[in-house]
């Protein structure tokens, strides 16, 4: 998380946990993401837990995309391969552009921890209405991997030659 130190461009971020079992009291992955986002100098402007239902996920993500205050959406959970997991099916149709490299990088880094099981990870990312959306597994270790190895650096203007900051909607601070 050190690469955000000195970042002068704070972003407004929504943290969404997809789970049929998590609550505000035991959402350790959402807690980790909120702390990491704030430590990086950004603001968590929305935080929610949503059931693993394609239409409920799509509705809450659509609201965040349409919001004039949300620039980034971090979704943890619902990306596995079992029949119940619906996050990719919910969010991919909302993308104006898919960020295919995110899923590829996530699985590459994840392989070091969980070997071939990473094959069943359906981590995805995209841009919609100048809002960047990252969806990844809900385990706290997967959230740490996604944030620390990929997302954190992409949300700072200090990352060269490219990052997502210039492509995000402008919000009044």
TrEMBL record:
Domain MoaB/Mog: 14-158
InterPro entries on file: MoaB, MoaB/Mog-like_dom_sf, MoaB/Mog_dom, MoaB_proteobac
Endpoints of the signal sequence: none
Keywords tagged on the record: Molybdenum cofactor biosynthesis
One Pfam family per UniProt: MoCF_biosynth
Database matches in CDD domains: MogA_MoaB
Domain of life, source organism: Bacteria
Pathway note: Cofactor biosynthesis; molybdopterin biosynthesis
UniProt record similarity statement: Belongs to the MoaB/Mog family.
Role, per record: May be involved in the biosynthesis of molybdopterin.
Protein name: Molybdenum cofactor biosynthesis protein B
Organism per entry: Rosenbergiella gaditana
